[in-house]
Amino acid sequence: MRNALRTLLVPVAALAGTVLPVSTAHAAGGYDRCPVGYYCMFSGLDGTGEMIQLRGSTPDLAPLGMNDRAESDWNRTSSTIHLWSDANYTGCTTVTSAGPTGKGNFFPAYRDFLSSVQFDGPGGPSCGTPPGEGR
Fold first, then answer.
1. Which CATH class is domain 36-122?
2. Burial 96-125 (b: 16+ CB within 10 A, else e)
3. For residue 22, how many C-alpha atoms fall within 13 Å in the half-sphere facing its CB?
4. Which of 37, 28, 44, 35 is nearest to 105 (CA)?
5. Nearest-CA neighbor of 74 among 44, 112, 34?
6. How far apart are CA 113 and CA 130, in angstroms?
7. Domain locations in the chain as residue ranges
8. What pTM, to 2 d.p., does this model score?
């Protein structure tokens, strides 16, 4: 009987030793959610809120739920991004450059304003820089 009990306890002890520790790593937040190689738009300031990530031109942000909703962005591509005020690359444009300067909050006048995203390309008439506003 003692051997039978030992036979039952050994597998239970072995299973208890295989429990994996719970990870304490935190999920990326804010701008850090945007993967390398993507252009990301956020519905909140400073990379907060809902996010979309794009790898190519997008003529209409409405199906992605970001039409007239973006407040910040991060361009983690090598492309210059032309942001259009209207769908199908119409209206006026503003630009988000590639590299370290391609991350931040939109001017207040351009928040909840953009409807399409074009990678590289010719761009269009400038929406202008609102007086006294910085990125």
1. mainly beta
2. beeeeebbbbbbeebbebbbbbbbeeebbe
3. 2
4. 44
5. 34
6. 13
7. 36-122
8. 0.76
Q: In residues, how long is the chain?
A: 135
- CA 59 from chain centre, in angstroms, equals 18
Both structure tokens of 96 = 């988000």
Please give the structure tokens belonging to residue 122.
């010719």
Helix (H/G/I), strand (E/B), else coil: 96: strand
Tens digits of residue pLDDT in 11-60: 444 434 444 444 445 567 899 999 999 999 999 999 999 999 999 999 99
Q: How far is CA 68 from each of CA 15, 65, 104, 114, 134, rounded to the nearest angstrom?
A: 54, 9, 17, 5, 20
Task: Read off the pLDDT of residues 77-88 as tens digits, 9 standing for 90 and up.
Answer: 999 999 999 999
76, 39 contact by CB (below 8 A): yes
Cα–Cα distance, 59 to 23 (Å, whole number): 40
